Every structure is written in C-alpha cells, then in structure tokens.
Amino acid sequence: MFFHIYLERNMQLHPRHFGPHLRDKLIAKLIQDVEGTCSGRHGFVVAVTAVETIGQGLIRDGTGFVTFPVKYQCVVFRPFKGEILESVVTMVNKMGFFAEAGPVQIFVSNHLIPDDMVFQSGDVPSYETSDGSVRIQKDSEVRLKIVGTRVDATEIFCIGTIKDDFLGLIGDPGGAT
Amino acid sequence: MSIEPFRRLVRIVARAFYDEEIPAKGPNRSKSDKSDNRGIAVVILDALTRRQWVKEDDLAKVLRLHPKQLRRTLRVLEEEMLVIREHRRETVKGAKLYNAAIAAVSEDHPGGREGEEKLKVHTHSYCCIDYAQVYDIVRYRIHRAKKKIKDQLEDRNTIQEYICPNSSCGRRYSALDALRLVNPFDENFHCENCNAELVAESDKLAAVELGDGDGEDNARRRRHEKLKELLEKMDKQLQPLTVQLSRVKDLTPPDFGTLAQWEKRAIAAGRMSSNGEAIVDLPKASHGQGLTGTPMPFLGETKVEVALAGGDVKREEGKDEAAGGPTKVLPPWMIRQGMSLTAEQRGEAKLEMKSEDSAALAGPTAPLDVKPTEEDNEAMQKKIQEEYLKAYYAALLQRQQEAAQMAASAANGNMSTPGDSTVGDGTSEALAAQEMKMDGAEDEEEVEWEDATATGAMIGEDNGGGSGEFEDEDEIDWEEG
Ligand SMILES: [Zn+2]
Question: For the purposes of burial, counting CB atoms within 10 Å of the CB of B51, is it exposed (0-12), middle (13-18) or buried (19 or more)?
Fold first, then answer.
C-alpha cells in the first residue's frame, strides 16, 4: 500500500556546496540518499515529493561538514499481509518462484501455487498446467496475495500465494499489459 | 414461541461439545480430585434450559450435585460463554426478591421458602443461559474449526517450512528466509550451515506416514485425503447442530436480562397472571398478557413479598431509565408476542375468555401444548392434542349456536347488511367442514389441529369485537375452512 507521509532526516553537506545553490544541492542529495531505501517502519521510499523545511545548519567540529535537519514529504510503499499485488516473476525453481512488485521481493512457495500447476525444469523452468494453457516462468506477470511479511530494519520480504480466486498469471513475458 | 428452538440448540450443543470429561481450567484442581464429571455439563445445561435465572445452590439441590462440583462446571461453561453468572452479597430481602421472582416464573420452585431459611448476608451465585451468545459462540466455533481444516486442506495462508535433511544439522527455515537460501548456481535452497539442499517440510499429519519414503507428493496427497475425511466427518456429525442453527437464525433469542432486571420482570409478569397462579412457562406469561381484562391478582402471602419487592422495582426502574433500556416497560417475551406468537396461541387465549367450560379444558392444556417437545414425548403430545381437539370442537359448537342466536337477534334488530343472510349458510358450511376435519383428524392430526385453531382464533376475535361486521369476516374464514 502507498502512503504519503512526512519524514525527517539530518543531512550532512560538504562545505564545497555552500553558495547560492545550497538549497538545490541539499534537495538533490536528499533525493539521492533517500529514494529507493527501505525502512521496516515506513516501507520503501518511492519518491520525495516536497521539502517542507530546512532547519538551521550545524557546523561539525574538525570537518567543516554542516548538518541540516530536513523535513520532507514522500511517497512510501509498504506491503501488508492480505494485500493483493501485481508482480513480475524473477526466478523459478522447484520450491516455488520469486517475483518483484516494484521494490518488494516476494516468494511464492510451490504449495501456494494451484495444484494443477506442475514444476517443469529445463532451459526455462516454469510452472504450468497439464494442458499448457497457463505457464508461469521468468518475466511472467502474476497477481498474488501476500500471506506473510518479514520486516527487518532495512528490508521487507514477503510470502505470496496465487492459490485463490482471481490470482495467478495475468500476462506473459513481454506481453503488453 | 421462539424459546423452544433455542432450548433445543443448547441441548444439541451440550451433547456435541460437552459430553466428555470437562478439563478443569485453572490451577486449583488438585490431583486427588478425581471426580468423574463426564456428562455433567449436559445435565446442567439441560436443567438450565428449563429455567431462567436460577440460584446455583438451588440448582445443585435439584440436580443432587455437590455445589462445588456444580460451580466448577458452571465456571467452565461461563468461560465458554454459554452461561452468564452473577454473584451478589445479599440480605434476606434480596433473597426474598429472588424467591418471589422464582415463584412467579417456575413451578418446580415453590415460593414460601423464606420461612425455612434464615438467610444471613451471604454471597449467592446465580446463573442463566445466554441464548443470544450461545448462538453466536457456536457459529463462531464451527466457523473456526472449518476454516482451520480448510486452510490446511488448501494450504492457504500457510508459510512453508524447510528442513535441512542433514541429520547432524537439521536446521529449519521458513519461506520468509527464501531470499537468503537461494543458491546462485543451481537456484535451489541450500542450508546456510552445511550447504545441503533443503527439503520442504510436510505437515504433521503426514509426518507419521512418511516412513514409507515414497516421496513428498504422496505424503501430500495422503494428507489431503485425511483432511478431507476430517472435514466430511465434521460436517456430518455437526449436521443436526447446523440445521438447528439455521432454524434459529431468524428468531429473536430469549433474553432474560441481568438478574435484577429478570427479577423485576418476573414479578411484574407474576402479578399479571390470572388468579395469582404460578406461571408455568413463558407462553403462559404471554397468555396473561393476552387477556385484556386481567383479573385482580390474588392477594396472598406471597403477594406481600411482591409488594415488598415493589419498592425495589421502583428503584430499579429509575436506574433502568437512566440506562435508557426500552425493554423495561414490557418484558421481552411480551414484546415478542406479536412477532412470534402464532394464531393458535392467541386463539386459545380468546377461547379461554369466551366460554368458561372450554377455558377449563383449554387452560391446563394450553401451556402444555408448547411444552411437550421439551419432554420429547410424542404420545403425550398426541393425547393432549386429542383432548384439546375435543374441547375445542365442543366449544366451537356452542359458539356457533350462540352465533346463530346472535345473528337471529341481530336480524331482528337494526342490522340490514347483506351479511346476515349468509350467516346461516356460513355456519352450516363451517359445521360440515369441521366434521370433515374431525374425520381427517386421526390421520393428519398436527396440520388439522393447527388449522382448526387458526380459525378458532378468528372466531374468538370476531366475537370479542362483537360488532356488526363480524359476519363478513366470519364468512371469509368459513370459506377458507
Ligand atoms: Zn544444514
């Protein structure tokens, strides 16, 4: 699920950036530092949308670096148990398959894949139905439901299932969506 | 009457879930205490279905159980949310209030106990079945049980576990570790410790049979079969319960309120019942209500107690008004009367009011015709119904004669409606119809009996009205008959 929230961060800026473009430099650095990171509490930071306030800078003794407290607005993505996501398969093995939904990695173990889909090893390992009409392989697009999440300080990992109504393959590799 | 299905529900629940030895929860059960309490919960719940609020000491006496044993079981039932209990420290007066209420409500607790027991200030416990909650709890329990099995059956929402097959290592991993376990070379899961390839853990049910070693797939299939079997078995065994649940679904569960509310209501209803006789059962209470011209209550010794309690009632009424409970004016069984009471009950009430001899006959049978299912005694019921039928037809005949007379006199009077010409035909038709029914009564007793009483209800109402229109209504009814 996506959220639009306020966050705060202390930014350290090298003295060489001090000048007329200090603010731009600071924001550029913030975006570079923050976007794409993950915190267990807020999820993945997808995009910084606005910088609210930049506080008084504090010069660090000895280095000349200045620390600015920055309050900014950003979009975060945090997966939850029970949430339905659309994802792209990244890897298939006999234990199941891995998929990505944006920054989130999801593993679907084989017992959460419908029973009529069987693992096929080979050049392109896949899960497919006996008549071959449905085939999940690398780069397939799959809709899944999250049944478990593991939230660490810097990482979120999910377990998904496609064993439910309206879940499963929604697009073949390279197919237009 | 909406209480009977709920009683039956409780009885089924008791037999389905509490027929075994009830494991005592709580730490204070000593090892030496080996009393066999198998089935006691069933007995207690059955007894409670026949009562409303009851003092636990009295219940213990009636059931010939040790109060401690009773209390232990009740505590479990309370935890299971089937029974509500109330404890209160009470003086003699408080106990009298309860005794008065019990005298007003039930027959197996004769009043007049206040003399024999000199009550000090004691903590007394009371218990009562909370039918609404029983209904919810049982549905929830079945739902949970089913969901658990189904989830296992479909492997839904479960997180797979993996074991290292290396017997010296045996580490366990969950699917949440999957990312770390993937080996970049063969893309399979490897143990972090010994690098052996992990195997998926099969469920415990199958683990027992894993000895055959014919592979994961087989074990999985067998597990499925077992779970399916379990689910089927459960469906089958709980079928009477689910049937009863669906039967009860749209009924309003009986609600006796808190102990204080119940006492107040019971006494109020007791005062309303005719001639101060004890109300045998709830339907009787609605009977009393059905009579518009309530006779003056018999002012006996118990009534002195009631008057005493009246003071309390008033105080409690004030309290209830603060709470804003709408039920305080009318007890729930009276409110429900309009919804759940069938025409037959109203018909009986009217008949009683109408002619003395039929009332004398219908009086004792009236409460019983609702009760017999409780005894599950069909023969008894049939007998009663037959008797009732006889009494009813006797009364009906008399009624029709009266009606004919009335019609005749009405025709002489100011009545000039077209109805009066049809009255005679109508009644004779009705008579023929009734005779036919008499013949058919042996075969289709149940149905016919209900039919007959339904028309009886109409007659009663019409005569109660006693207005000029009644012939028309009569006519419609006769045609139905
Ligand atoms: Zn290992």
Answer: buried
Domain boundaries, chain B: 1-129+257-324, 153-247, 329-481
Domain(s) of CATH 2.40.50.140: residues in chain A? 84-171
Instruction: Report the predicted TM-score, pTM, of the whole model to 2 decimal places.
Output: 0.43
Residues with Cβ–ion distance below 5 A, ligand 1:
B 164, 166, 169, 171, 191, 193-194
What SS3 class is residue B304? Answer: helix
Task: Tell me the nearest-neighbour CA distance from B234 into chain A, angstroms.
Answer: 24
Who contacts A174 (Cβ-Cβ below 8 Å, separation ≥6)? A139
What is the CATH superfamily name and number for domain A84-171? Nucleic acid-binding proteins (2.40.50.140)
Longest pairwise C-alpha distance within chain A: 71
Asked if B59 and B47 count as a contact pair (C-beta separation under 8 A), the reply is yes
Closest chain B CA to residue A145? B157
In chain A, ranges of CATH 3.30.1490.120 domains = 2-77
Residue B413 structure tokens: 């009077």
What superfamily would CATH give domain A2-77? RNA polymerase Rpb7-like, N-terminal domain (3.30.1490.120)
- B245-302 per-position pLDDT tens digit: 888 888 888 888 888 888 888 888 776 654 444 443 433 333 333 333 334 444 333 4
- Report chain A's C-alpha Rg in angstroms: 22
Residue A51's DSSP bridge partners are A72
Ligand 1 mean position, distance from CA A112 (Å): 24
SS3 B158: coil
